[in-house]
Amino acid sequence: MSEAPRTATLTIDGTTYDLPIHSPTSGPDVLDIRKLYGQAGVFTYDPGFTSTASCESTITYIDGEEGVLTHRGYPIGDLAGKSHYLEVCYLLLYGELPTAAQLEDFETTITHHTMLHEQMGNFFRGFRRDAHPMAVMVGVVGAMSAFYHDSTDISDPRQREIASHRLIAKMPTIAAWAYKYTIGQPFVYPRNDLDYASNFLRMCFAVPAEEYEVNPILSRAMDRIFTLHADHEQNASTSTVRLASSSGANPFACIAAGIACLWGPAHGGANQACLEMLKEIGSVDRIPEYIERAKDKNDPFRLMGFGHRVYKNMDPRATVMKESADEVLELLGVEDNPLLQVAKELEHIALNDPYFKEKKLFPNVDFYSGIILEAMGFPTSMFTPIFALSRTVGWISQWKEQLSDPAHKIGRPRQLYLGEDVRSYTDIENR
Ligand code: SDX
Fold it and tell me: Which residues line ligand 1 (CB under 6 A)?
């Protein structure tokens, strides 16, 4: 005899409603309110979705209290230490770690999709030279739907897979070309004899005048940064991609929407904002001034790279990123980087400050990433494009998961209307 399904009882004006409770593999139970409006004629109210599960998923799990992040069950620390980005891409896309043959086949496929349609180069030249690379990425990725018509039919699983491979493979080329364009240097084409991270570094930093030797330390650090940003449950940009996809929009349009959302300083734009904040603070002795500003309700200033909607403990990605920062800066001989000293002291002070402890504000993934990226030679304007490059596989995996559910519906939230009641039109002479 199977157990009766668990339910929660809601009583409104004397009438009771039973709401099914679903239990997850891990994490909080969820109340199923899908029938609530039809039965009780009421909406639930949750702006910012602080208590709302928007979907079912099997891809990524986060425990904010414990500071846990897993992809298909594998802890992020194991993946960052033992795996590499394209293997993590395979895991996110297909659900299991690949065999050696599967991995070789996948890496060959991705390597052979890294080139852009030659005509797309003209898109970059339409932007002002001082355009932010994120503006270029939003435009160029959206425009991919004008070039790759043979992978825009979302009802065809094979086209969905080709679009997935194209986006993962071409994003480094798009990001690198967006950078080259803004610094007035010629585009560097991808090469098939380089791994994913090395190819990206070479496309960013090689110049025709001389050969570019990829530093294996930098390419390993780059690959680890890609892995740490690959996916993160139903964050704002992933939710944007799912909502765009729910209307049946093509994959390139959906990913362009995700890039646009990621750009905000409260989300993926925080890595650029964090490094600019560290530069503004400038020295350890000025940290108390900024800590006080962050606590001042009348001051909009926030410590960028701190706080998180889900993590109320250390973001496990920040822990790995901090270790990588120490390693990369030491190997590059810049371990006495003043920004790293400011960041470490800021972290120490904030973690011991009653305000931050009470509000459970810890460093997040964006706190240390900018320090590594700057040491690697990237300008701050390239930090969020690198986040977008890394997160493309997460967006695509979540997009693919949503489309594989035949019951998925268009996302169409309602509202709590507080505007005017119905009223008569007043002619202009009477206003
Ligand atoms: C990412 O969701 C994801 O998974 C995102 C991400 C991913 O991988 O996709 O992890 C990537 O976006 C990381 C977050 C990067 N953003 C920043 O570092 C920007 C600075 N942080 C914040 O603005 C803020 O912490 C958020 C946006 C990240 C989270 O905001 P919430 O969950 O809506 O929390 P909140 O704004 O309601 O803050 C709760 C309280 C507030 O004080 P009270 O109004 O309760 O008195 O904490 C305070 C806030 O003022 N607070 C901060 C703070 N963050 C929150 N105070 C000072 N400095 C901060 N950084």
Answer: 232, 235, 266-268, 270, 294, 302-310, 359, 361, 364-366
CA distance 313 to 68: 9
Question: Which residue's alpha carbon is nearest to atom 32 within ligand 1?
Answer: 309
Q: Whose CA is nearest to atom 21 of ligand 1?
A: 307
Instruction: Residue 20: give the domain boundaries.
Output: 7-53
Q: Best mutation site among 49, 54, 302, 313 for ligand 1, i.e. most ligand atoms within 8 A of its Cβ?
A: 302
Determine contact, residues 58/35, Cβ cutoff 8 Å. no
Task: Per-residue pLDDT tens, the chain, 431 aa: give them.
Answer: 567 789 999 999 999 999 999 999 999 999 999 999 999 999 999 999 999 999 999 999 999 999 999 999 999 999 999 999 999 999 999 999 999 999 999 999 999 999 999 999 999 999 999 999 999 999 999 999 999 888 888 889 999 999 999 999 999 999 999 999 999 999 999 999 999 999 999 999 999 999 999 999 899 999 999 999 999 999 999 999 999 999 999 999 999 999 999 999 999 999 999 999 999 999 999 999 999 999 999 999 999 999 999 999 889 999 999 988 888 888 888 878 888 899 989 999 988 999 999 999 999 889 989 989 998 999 999 999 999 999 999 999 999 999 999 888 999 999 999 999 999 999 999 99
When divided into structural domains, the chain yields a total of 3
β pairing state of 7-12 and 15-22: antiparallel
Query: Among 361, 376, 391, where does a domain finish?
Result: 376
Residue whose CA lies nearest to ligand 1 atom number 37: 309
Distance CA 398, CA 393 (A): 9
What's the predicted TM-score (pTM) here?
0.95
Q: Which residues are catalytic?
A: 308, 366
Residue 115 in domain: yes
DSSP per residue, 138-152? HHHHHHGGGT-GGG-
Mutate to test the pocket of ligand 1, among 49, 271, 314, 361 (most ligand atoms within 8 A of CB): 361
240 & 306 share domain: no
Return d(Cα 143, Cα 277) in angstroms, integer: 33
Q: Is residue 417 part of a domain?
A: no
In a domain, 400, yes or no: no
Please give the Cα distance from 153 to 149 (Å, whole number). 8
Locate the ligand 1 atom nearest the alpha carbon of residue 238 and give its number: 9
Indicate whether 217 and 316 sit together in one domain: no
Task: Outline where DSSP puts E strands in 245-383.
Answer: none
209 Cα: distance to centroid of ligand 1 (angstroms): 45
Same domain, 341 and 250: no
Neighbours of 49 (CB within 10 A): 13
Name the closest-CA residue to atom 39, ligand 1: 359
Residues 234 and 345 in one domain: no
Nearest CA to ligand 1 atom 7: 232
Ligand 1 pocket test: pick from 52, 267, 346, 347 the residue with the most ligand atoms within 8 Å of its Cβ: 267
